[in-house]
Specification:
By secondary structure, this protein is α/β, with parallel strands linked by helices. It has 16 helices and 15 strands. An eight-stranded mixed sheet has the order 4-5-3-2-6-8-10-7, with helices on both faces. A five-stranded mixed sheet has the order 12-11-13-14-15, sandwiched between helices. The protein has a two-stranded antiparallel sheet with strand order 1-9. β13 and β14 form a beta hairpin. The radius of gyration is 22 Å and the shape is elongated. The relative contact order is 0.13. Catalyzes the transfer of a phosphate group to glutamate to form L-glutamate 5-phosphate.
Length: 391
């Protein structure tokens, strides 16, 4: 099996479970990929941007609250500066983003004003998501904008954040924003229609996958890293975004942003693209932050017995189940939890540093406390209240 990135205008009705997600939705986050609002030359497609804004205005008229996570700042800067292509050097990317961000926001403000709507710019960085206080501040600011009837226009702060330009993607940002504002639906608009059973470019019968209930390791293996010339994301980032959305109880759609009336049709419950069904039970705000807001500093590998205890029995991670650690981390850092095959299935806040984990790994708690009494301040390496199972 493989995933392809082609366009197909398939329409079927969502099943009852999926339809209810749209029928009851009131708050929507829409991610506009670079390919959705730019031409093949990399210039902003002003006609397409107006088309998107007109559709958002229709949603607002139906009493939906809408948040937009918009790519295109660098592309707008490239156009304004008269560059022939997207720069490769970081300083030039920052310069293009700095020029383009203001131009893009001005165009949004002008287009929305034609519908009597106001916009507010919000530039986020990893710092705003990783640090708890900034996380809460960002959430309060966004919810206040929505309460005032303003359409937030969100992007990463590309002009100053080097990591965001080199490695960031607006798919993941949009999913984190959906969690921040407690959205009901996340829509990723790009130049792809959704997930397919195989890649038709290499033969075989490619069928659109209309619904996904769970993000499995097999599904992640299918996702490639292909992105457009002027964008930074690909299918892999969209699958990661779907994982975040599912755990946050947010339904997510991946589809082609240039399909006529795409946003209105989606919110009317028509099956367009691939719909990721949200979980029934949402993780607590703290556990969602641990899982997707706090960056990881390393990883801990555990044996099969510990995997079963953590997943099936909801236990804490004890020293006896630990096989190895990777990276350098300190008490209070977030670490990934891997099984013996190297697959990440959990994440948590560790009570011990990587050096201490290496000393006590494989020992029963009583043995570890007897052998290293000065280090054993907690029985658990990771307490179950600070641990999230991702599978």
């Amino acid at each position: 099996m493989f995933i392809s990135f082609i366009i197909q205008h398939t329409e079927v009705q969502i099943n009852c479970k999926g339809l209810n997600a749209f029928r009851n939705a009131r708050r929507v986050v829409i991610k506009l990929g670079t390919s959705t609002i730019t031409k093949s030359t990399g210039e902003i497609d002003h006609v397409q941007l107006k088309n998107i804004v007109d559709q958002v205005a229709k949603l607002r008229a139906k009493d939906y609250q809408v948040v937009i996570v918009s790519s295109g700042a660098i592309a707008a800067g490239v156009e304004s500066l008269g560059l022939k292509a997207r720069p490769a050097a970081i300083p030039e990317l920052q310069a293009a983003a700095s020029v383009g961000q203001g131009l893009l926001l001005h165009e949004y403000a002008t287009l929305f004003s034609e519908h009597g709507l106001k916009v507010g710019q919000v530039l986020l960085t990893q710092h705003d998501i990783v640090h708890r206080q900034q996380y809460l501040n960002s959430r309060n600011a966004l919810k206040t904008l929505l309460k005032l009837g303003i359409v937030p226009i969100i992007n990463e702060n590309d002009a100053t954040a080097v990591d965001e330009i080199k490695f960031g993607d607006n798919d993941t940002l949009a999913a984190l924003v959906a969690n921040l504002v407690n959205a009901d639906i996340l829509i990723l608009l790009s130049d792809i229609e959704g997930l397919y059973t195989c890649d038709p470019r290499f033969g075989g019968d490619a069928c659109l996958i209309p619904e996904v209930k769970d993000i499995t390791s097999e599904l992640e293996d299918l996702a490639g890293s292909v992105g457009s010339e002027f964008g930074s994301g690909g299918m892999a980032t969209k699958v990661q975004a779907a994982r975040i959305a599912i755990f946050a109880c947010v339904g997510m759609v991946i589809t082609n942003g240039r399909r006529p009336n795409v946003l209105v049709d989606i919110m009317d419950g028509k099956r367009i693209g691939t719909f990721f069904i949200p979980r029934k039970k949402k993780l607590s705000g703290r556990k969602l932050w641990i899982a997707f807001g706090k960056s990881t500093a390393g990883s801990i590998t555990v044996d099969d017995g510990a995997v079963n205890a953590l997943i099936a029995s909801g236990k804490s991670l004890l020293p006896a189940g630990v096989v190895a650690s990777e990276g350098e981390f300190q008490e209070g850092d977030a670490v990934n939890i891997k099984d013996m095959r190297g697959r990440i299935f959990g994440k948590g806040i560790t009570n011990y540093s990587s050096d201490e984990v290496d000393r006590i790994k494989g020992l029963k708690t009583s043995e570890a406390m007897e052998k290293y009494p000065e280090s054993m301040n907690n029985e658990e390496i990771i307490h179950r209240d600070c641990l999230v199972i991702l599978r």
